[in-house]
């Protein structure tokens, strides 16, 4: 799932989060974009914190234009399992 956040200069930063990462945040998530969107909206603050840390560390996905959040990026204390 793709979303955008705003950096300190007011520029949009493209981010993506994997279905597995979303499922870590909410194990009850069903397959499909609607439920993935619900989890992203519900957990937006946590997701943006993860994305911001990766942005600050310049951890962009290959190609250099997207911050990619994977299952392993979700801290243990944030996981719903």
Secondary structure layout:
Elements: E1 2-6, E2 12-17, H1 19-25, H2 33-42, H3 44-56, E3 66-69
Parallel strand pairs: 2-3
Antiparallel strand pairs: 1-2
Describe the structure.
By secondary structure, the chain is α+β, with helices and mostly antiparallel strands. The chain has a single domain (about 1-80), classed as Double Stranded RNA Binding Domain. The protein contains three helices and three strands. It has helices at about 20-25, 35-40, 45-55, and strands at about 1-5, 10-15, 65-70. It has a three-stranded mixed β-sheet with strand order 1-2-3. The radius of gyration is 12 Å and the shape is globular. The model has no long low-confidence stretch (mean pLDDT about 90).
What is the average of the pLDDT values?
A: 91
Q: Spell the H/E element sequence.
A: EEHHHE
Distance between the termini: 21 Å
How many β-strand runs? 3
- Percent of residues in helices: 25-40%
Percent range for β-strand residues: 15-25%
* CATH fold type: Double Stranded RNA Binding Domain
* Broad CATH class: Alpha Beta
Radius of gyration: 12 Å
CATH architecture, by name, is: 2-Layer Sandwich
Biggest sheet record = 3 strands, mixed
Shape: globular
Spans where pLDDT lies below 50 across 5 or more residues = none
Spatially, the strands of the biggest sheet line up as: 1-2-3
Number of domains: 1
Structural class: alpha+beta
How many helices in DSSP terms?
3
